[in-house]
Design brief:
With 389 residues, this protein is an alpha/beta fold. The chain contains 15 helices and twelve strands. It binds pyridoxal-5'-phosphate.
Length: 389
């Protein structure tokens, strides 16, 4: 029996370097740092609205399964989130025909959300958005580098990054809006209206970092989880009020990127050791998608169980073995607390529903070790009734 519990997600906050290096997006995009990914996304929506003068009630398309912060970012700009169901219950992608069907005269943008390191199908979405004169926003809060930067094709007009806890690059908060250079001149005057606050790397920052990193240990995670008012890992809608630009030192951002790149690639180990679960009706999401993804670290290793009962039983077993596995958002967007009130949306999204009911995520951060993987594989072998490898 091991003491404490392995956290499901979250990397240590790095120490800033004296100087910044060239940022990976500098060829095609200019950046504006913000206090959070949600603020950056909301700025992106603001720009999309500004780009469509004459539309009184702007609408923004987004997937029906995802982070409630997406809804907060859109409603903060007075726009309406329009949800699009997933293509099938097996993948975190929007149905392209569903995207086209949801476009109206009021649509200003499509938000393409990368999920746990699996980017959206940008090449399809870029044709849809071009044909309808919409802005394509890549929400890459969970994927690094963003696909638009990685491919060198700069598919998205705007890209959003998050530096929050539980994201690929954890700087204890912060976000970035990347504006493609062909839009820079048009959008700079709008962005310059938002006040800037500096991020000071001072004694209190170092103290906060020390405590933050301390909280990531197995023992502290197990304790924190038991404190009810912290609502650790709970998903609900938090409305966004003000937006500020934030002057984040480049030395901090570049160290965060470096550290992310040096992290172990646990998903290839999971892929090897858990391949037997395919025969029991489980789906390994990362392995279904282009294998070139496997050379960059994913945020969490994502699986779909045959049913929500199997998923819950497995989470329970992993939990009792000291592994923080979880179901992530747990529900499609309209069922998350506060979302339907904010959007007036009561429709059903059967594919998003299925996906949410079956998803289980395993930790991939630098605190995972070989013994954890053995424990996890052992849990699957005990729980699943299927032919062993
Ligand atoms: C976390 C997240 C955000 C918001 O980022 P914060 O920095 O936490 O505000 C936006 N979109 C997605 C997909 C996210 O996962």
């Amino acid at each position: 029996m091991r003491l404490g519990k392995l956290r499901p997600v979250g990397s240590k906050v790095p120490l800033p370097a004296q100087k910044g290096a060239v940022l990976p997006w500098e060829g095609e995009y200019v950046h504006e740092f913000t206090r959070s990914g949600t603020e950056a996304l909301s700025l992106a929506v603001r720009l999309a609205i500004a780009d469509h003068p004459g539309i009184d009630s702007p609408e923004v398309l987004m997937p029906a399964y995802g982070c409630p912060d997406l809804v907060a970012a859109v409603v903060a700009q007075g726009a309406t989130p329009v949800l699009v169901d997933l293509a099938d219950g097996q993948a975190p992608y929007m149905d392209i025909a569903g995207v086209e069907a949801a476009i109206t005269d009021n649509t200003v943008a499509i938000i393409a959300v990368g999920f746990l390191g699996l980017p959206e199908r940008l090449s399809d979405l870029v044709s849809v958005s071009r044909a309808n004169k919409l802005l394509l926003i890549e929400d890459s809060a969970q994927c690094f580098p963003p696909k638009s930067v990685d491919t060198g094709n700069a598919e998205a007009d705007l890209v959003v990054l998050s530096f929050g806890r539980g994201k690929p690059i954890n700087l204890m908060g912060g976000g970035a809006l990347l504006v493609r250079k062909d839009h820079q001149e048009r959008f700079a005057p709008i962005l310059s209206c938002y006040p800037v606050i500096a991020l000071a790397i001072n004694l209190s920052w170092y103290l906060k970092r020390f405590l933050f990193n301390l909280m990531l240990s197995r023992l502290s995670f197990a304790l924190l989880e038991k404190i009810p008012f912290l609502h650790l890992g709970e998903t609900r809608l938090h409305l966004l009020s003000d937006i500020y630009r934030r002057d984040i030192p480049l030395g901090l951002v570049t160290v965060g990127i470096d550290q992310y790149r040096k992290r172990p690639i646990w998903q290839s180990v999971y892929d090897r050791k858990l391949s037997f679960i395919d025969r029991c009706g489980w789906v390994r999401l990362q392995s279904l998608h282009d294998s070139d993804e496997s050379d960059s670290t994913c945020l969490r290793y994502a699986l779909l169980a045959p049913s929500s009962r199997d998923r819950d039983a497995m989470i329970d077993r992993l939990d009792k073995s000291g592994i923080g596995a979880n179901s992530f958002y747990g529900k499609p967007l309209p069922e998350i607390e506060g979302v339907s009130e904010a959007t007036g949306n009561i429709e059903c999204y059967p594919m998003a529903e299925q996906f949410a009911a079956r998803l289980l995520t395993l930790p991939c951060h630098e605190g995972v070790n070989g013994q954890d993987i053995e424990v996890i594989v052992g849990c699957f072998m005990l729980e699943l009734v299927c032919p062993r490898p």
